[in-house]
Amino acid sequence: MTSSIFHRVTVIGPGLIGSSILRRIQKDRSLATYTVAYDNNPDVCNRVKELQIADEVCSDPETAVKDADCVILAVPVGVMGEVTKQIAPYLQKGAILTDTGSTKASVIAAIEPHLPPDVVFVPTHPMAGTEFSGPDAGFESLFENRWCLITPTPNTTQEAIDKITEFWQKMGSNTRILDIKHHDKVCAIVSHLPHLIAFTICNTADSLEEETRSEVLDYAASGFRDFTRVASSDPTMWRDVFINNREAILEMLARFTEDAQAMAKAIRWKDEEYITETIQKGRRIRKSLIDNKQVQ
Ligand SMILES: NC(=O)c1ccc[n+]([C@@H]2O[C@H](COP(=O)([O-])OP(=O)(O)OC[C@H]3O[C@@H](n4cnc5c(N)ncnc54)[C@H](O)[C@@H]3O)[C@@H](O)[C@H]2O)c1
Ligand SMILES: O=C(O)C(=O)C[C@]1(C(=O)O)C=C[C@@H](O)C=C1
Fold first, then answer.
1. CB 37, CB 22: distance < 8 Å
2. Of 114, 75, 125, whose CA–CA distance to 91 is shortest?
3. CATH 3.40.50.720 domain span(s) along the chain
4. How does pLDDT run across 239-251, given as a tens digit for each residue?
5. CB 205 within 8 A of CB 224
6. What's the rounded mean pLDDT across residues 99-114?
7. 3-state DSSP call for residue 158?
8. Nearest Cα to 179, choosing from 163, 156, 159, 195?
9. How many CA atoms lie within 13 A of 26 on its CB side?
10. Prephenate/arogenate dehydrogenase domain location, by residue (predicted)?
11. pTM of the prediction?
């Protein structure tokens, strides 16, 4: 019999990400022998029971984390600190606490003050997701061929990093260790700014329709439709991401605004060379993502 990486994994917040982790463990028991789920929304707990994706569903966080050798926080980034405070006195000595939050500096700052000295925290961020949320949205192959970024703190032990690395690699992910601030900057440009732009462009189109009483949205072409997929993402999750990575997002937004202004100038002065080169850069980026198998 092969042994599992963890004996008892507790997922707090079994929504899109948490339920995908549970589903993957159910398929591959070398990840964990036993799984426990807890959510502060009783409807989510009931749904996880109906879906039968966890071995046990707890109605309180204290029982959920007791005896777990790994606790995974998959809640919105704005409540990571408060949840850690709630569970901290009940964490098992030697347990690993990890999270899946989309921002890292703020999550680490929120969690660390509540961390018991004999618990190791390994901050992680699976770069995989969809516009859907909740336990029905998850699926076991979500993390396959996706990056999982690991951003250790000075207190994270090498042993814990190795275990979490093995865990995510068995989930099908490629792993990379990243500096915390660097992570937040990179994610601001590749994930947070695109969402900000998608939400904003939908709002602009909507208010234009109201102002002109026209049918702007009826004729939405596929370019706009692609933005609406991203813009249909969860409001709580994204409100928290924007507020918790504000410095990096505002910096990337300022740079984007400068580049958009440069494009506006090129269009005004019919600078064909600048316009063509900008479009070609976009095409090259798309091609490199396809070559790296990050786009189907
Ligand atoms: N959606 C994505 O594409 C994606 C990708 C990577 C990482 N993440 C990150 O992973 C985390 C989870 O995202 P998700 O998309 O799975 O969200 P989700 O909304 O699908 O699930 C979050 C769950 O947390 C629960 N929750 C909220 N507050 C709680 C609390 N105080 N105590 C217990 N449970 C609570 C909610 O009821 C919900 O079931 C977030 O931090 C997010 O930033 C999301
Ligand atoms: O695929 C999507 O729709 C996502 O929004 C996933 C996505 C992203 O922007 O790529 C969203 C947030 C994350 O923290 C990681 C991944």
1. yes
2. 114
3. 6-178
4. 999 999 999 999 9
5. yes
6. 98
7. helix
8. 156
9. 20
10. 7-296
11. 0.96
**Distance from C-alpha of 202 to C-alpha of 235, rounded to nearest angstrom:** 14
One-character DSSP codes across 218-265: GG--HHHHHHHHHHTS-HHHHHHHHHHTHHHHHHHHHHHHHHHHHHHH
Please give the distance, rounded to the nearest whole angstrom, from the Cα atom of residue 289 to the centre of ligand 2.
Answer: 15
Residue 166: CB atoms within 10 Å: 14
Residue 9: in which H helix or E strand, if any?
Answer: strand 6-12
* Cβ of 127 less than 6 Å from ligand 2: yes
The boundaries of every CATH 1.10.3660.10 domain in the chain are 182-291
* CATH annotation of 6-178: 3.40.50.720
Q: Tell me which of 1.10.3660.10, 1.10.10.10, 3.40.190.10, 3.40.50.300 is the CATH number of domain 182-291.
A: 1.10.3660.10
Residues framing ligand 1 (Cβ under 6 A): 12-13, 15-18, 39-41, 44, 74-77, 79, 83, 100-102, 126, 129, 133-134, 234, 237, 241
Token duo for residue 66 = 């007791």
Atom of ligand 1 nearest to the CA of 137: 20
Minimal-distance CA residue to ligand 1 atom 42: 101
Q: Which amino acid is at 238?
A: W
Q: How far, in Å, CA of 152 to CA of 122, rounded?
A: 6
Query: What are 18-43's pLDDT values in tens digits?
Result: 999 999 999 999 999 999 999 999 99
Q: Which of 198, 195, 191, 184 is nearest to 127 (CA)?
A: 191
Is 106 in contact with 242 (CB distance < 8 Å)? no
Residue 173: helix, strand or coil by DSSP?
A: coil
- Ligand lying nearest the CA atom of residue 238: 1
pLDDT digits (tens, 9 = 90+) for 250-273: 999 999 999 999 999 999 999 999
